[in-house]
Amino acid sequence: MTEPINPPARLLMGPGPINADPRVLRAMSAQLVGQYDPAMTGYMNETMELYRGVFKTRNEATLVVDGTSRAGIEAALVSLLEPGDVVLVPIFGRFGHLLREIAERCQADVRVIEREWGTVFTPAEIEAALIEHKPKLLAVVHGDTSTTVAQPLDELGALAAKHGALLYTDVTASLAGNTFEADAWGIDAVTGGLQKCLAGPSGSAPISLSPRAVEVINSRKSIEAGIRSEGDAVSAQPIRSNYFDLSQILDYWGPKRLNHHTEATSMLYAARECARLLVDEGMENAVERHRMHGTAMLEGVKALGLKVFGDPAVRMNNVVGVHIPDGIDGDAARATMLNDYGIEIGTSFGPLAGKVWRIGTMGYNARRDTVLTTLAVLEQVLRRGGVPVTAGSGVGAALDSYE
Ligand SMILES: Cc1ncc(COP(=O)(O)O)c(C=O)c1O
Fold first, then answer.
1. Quick check: 233 pLDDT over 90?
2. Residue ranges of the domains in the chain?
3. Distance between Cα 1 and ligand 1 center (Å)
4. Distance between CA atoms of 99 and 108, rounded to whole angstroms?
5. Class in CATH terms, 283-402
6. What pairs with residue 315 in β-bridges?
């Protein structure tokens, strides 16, 4: 016989997932209702309005896609791109490579520009590539969790529009921890996830689409046989995924309530509660909370003698990368933190694997107690690994930062 689920107590201080806010977990444990129950459609409408507040947009087409963050990415790209469409992907980390990979599977004509991990592009570099490649879509990650830095987006919407492109961005790692303004920045499509600064579990991908993006998506609308009425759209070039066909998903979330998937009710409860908590706190306050605790963590790791990875001018508030000191086995140290103290910090991918740890302060875990505890434990682990550390230096620097 297996036992009921009873996970070990963990403090998740990596790059996500993090511990969910207990209020989100409580919302998820609420009983189900039918998918067309007025209570359910009411929750769906409230969720749309709440995410308009989170994304800072008036876009009617603001909803959640069922699935983890990459479901949102895949829905946006497969719905916006037709085979052969040119898409420009500036890559500065692992998740830029993911955008390229998904766009290639959409059979788009993918053009990339690349920067060294830990750096970002200048607007001029992106404009030069827009002029050279004339894409239909510019697809760029905002905060790339793999490198801890965020591509500034505020000028890119105007540049994309000037050169006739739509702008898509993935804000999974950055949303709510760093300023994001969908409308003010001219973003046409944006997707996120719950498991980082939104303080929820992975499994739901908030998305917002500008009227221009909706027009492009609906130009290929094809309503499934079986639910189609006379006069309904049947495209010769339908969107190449049924599950992620945003033209149909929009009809499910819109006044038509045309049947598509069965909305993942418990995840909807979670997504709604994540957004409700943020809108209640105020998005500016949430960003400021992440900035304050992220800065305390940054000052703490620096005081422990750790060298910070990435361009500090564009560092995300909610995650810091540090070079693993010489003589320390990064994975063994992480295992000690997990097994002896119940604290998880992150490893890294690709060129940074084995060289950089990533420490997050996000969502429910962007708190003073979590920052101080993590720094105190890190000090012990470094010291036992033979790294000379001044006693109390990390915690002391964090406390100074709070003061
Ligand atoms: C920036 C970014 N994009 C996409 C993803 C993929 O998210 P998921 O694992 O929820 O599909 C992640 C996950 O860490 C991420 O950080």
1. no
2. 32-279, 283-402
3. 35
4. 11
5. alpha beta
6. 149
Q: Which residues line ligand 1 (CB under 6 A)?
A: 16, 68-70, 95, 141, 144-145, 170, 172-173, 193, 202
CA 388 to ligand 1 centroid distance, Å: 35
DSSP string, 319-373: EEEEEPPTT--HHHHHHHHHHHH-EE-B---GGGTTTEEEEE--GGG-SHHHHHH
Fold agreement (32-279, 283-402): no
Task: Tell how far the Cα of 295 is from the centroid of ligand 1, in angstroms.
Answer: 23
Phi/psi at 252 (5° precision): -70, -40
Q: Enumerate residues 6+ apart whose C-beta is below 8 A from 232.
A: 223
The pLDDT value given to residue 26? 98
pLDDT band at 231 (very low <50, low <70, confident <90, very high): confident
CATH for 32-279 (3.40.50.150, 3.40.50.1820, 1.50.10.20, 3.40.640.10): 3.40.640.10
Token reading at 282 = 């105020």
